[in-house]
Write a structure and sequence with these properties.
- This protein has 11 helices and no strands.
- It is mostly helical.
- The protein starts with a helix and ends with a helix.
């Protein structure tokens, strides 16, 4: 029961993190700067976790020579995923910013399993898993492409449903990159014999990449507005929540298995997205959730259960 509660909590925290980072984006006037702050805080937090647990921060030099190059790029993919969510949030709302990447994650995870990419064992697609994928897509159609959901998106950027579609496709693509990051970090955790250290390396690589991108393309690291006393204190929590999400998954997979972890975390993610949308928490745009969308979400979760548990 304790493990299930952890899964729900960290899942709920992911859309909360996206909402926080979106607010931070408005303050520093850049999704890249917002991601940089979040990654930096997450890296510091994970470094403290490693030091407290006496694992150390150093990676053996031989590891760099013996392992494939792609084992170190998880952080880069994480940057794209996190920054993508920050950009998507104002256009899609919290619920869709959760759901569209989930679709991408499922597509990519089935491809990775089927072809054994990133050094993982192959798991050939079965009829049940294919049916599960179809059920997921049907659930997404009910949630996203109904008149009720399209009609709620009336910001200056998304007054017509046709303008929402590119953002939804972008959400699916970021989700695919997130699934690849998870597989890469999982392999790195096995190599380093520490999922915590793998998470730290991923965050560190992402932080360095963002520092360089912001310094070069945004002409310096200008984050002074974030330190204004007029800002809410919680704008600094995005990186900590992201770190806890990674650590929570690292703890849960050995305890309850990958399949059940994904399903429980998904429940938490969708619940968090719906709550933020319906209540307008953390400065998010308030979006009314309709009954047909709840039905679609239930169908989507059933599809995920078929894919991950059978």
């Amino acid at each position: 029961m304790f493990s299930l509660l952890i899964g729900l909590v960290i899942g709920f925290g992911l859309p909360v993190q996206t909402a926080i980072n979106s607010r931070l984006r408005n303050i520093v006037d850049s999704p890249m700067r917002s991601s940089m702050i979040s990654f930096s805080i997450g890296t510091i937090f994970l470094a403290l976790v490693l030091l407290i647990t006496m694992q150390g921060l150093i990676v053996p030099i031989a590891t760099f020579a013996q392992q494939p190059w792609w084992i170190w790029i998880g952080g880069i993919l994480g940057v794209v995923y996190l920054t993508g969510n920050i950009v998507l949030f104002p256009h899609l709302g919290a619920a869709q910013t959760v759901i569209m990447p989930v679709v991408g994650q499922l597509i990519m995870s089935m491809l990775i399993d089927n072809f054994g990419w990133f050094g993982l064992p192959r798991h050939t697609l079965t009829l049940v898993r294919v049916v599960g994928g179809i059920v997921v897509l049907f659930g997404v159609v009910l949630v996203v492409f109904t008149n009720s959901s399209a009609g709620t998106l009336k910001t200056a950027e998304t007054r017509h449903a046709s303008l929402v579609l590119p953002w939804q496709i972008a959400g699916i693509c970021t989700g695919m990159l997130s699934a690849a990051q998870t597989a890469i970090n999982g392999h790195l955790g096995t190599v380093l014999q520490s999922p915590e250290k793998a998470a730290f390396i991923s965050f560190l690589v992402g932080t360095v990449a963002l520092l360089l991108i912001v310094a070069i393309y945004e002409h310096g690291i200008h984050i002074r507005p974030a330190f204004s006393t007029h800002n809410p204190w919680w704008i600094w929590l995005g990186g900590v929540i992201g770190s806890l999400f990674v650590l929570g998954n690292a703890y849960l997979v050995p305890e309850i298995g990958t399949g059940l972890t994904v399903v429980i975390v998904l429940f938490g993610m969708i619940a968090g997205g719906l709550v933020i949308d319906s209540l307008g928490w953390l400065g998010a745009r308030r979006i009314k959730v309709k009954a047909i969308q709840l039905v679609g979400i239930l169908i989507l979760v059933c599809g995920v259960v078929l894919i991950k548990l059978f």
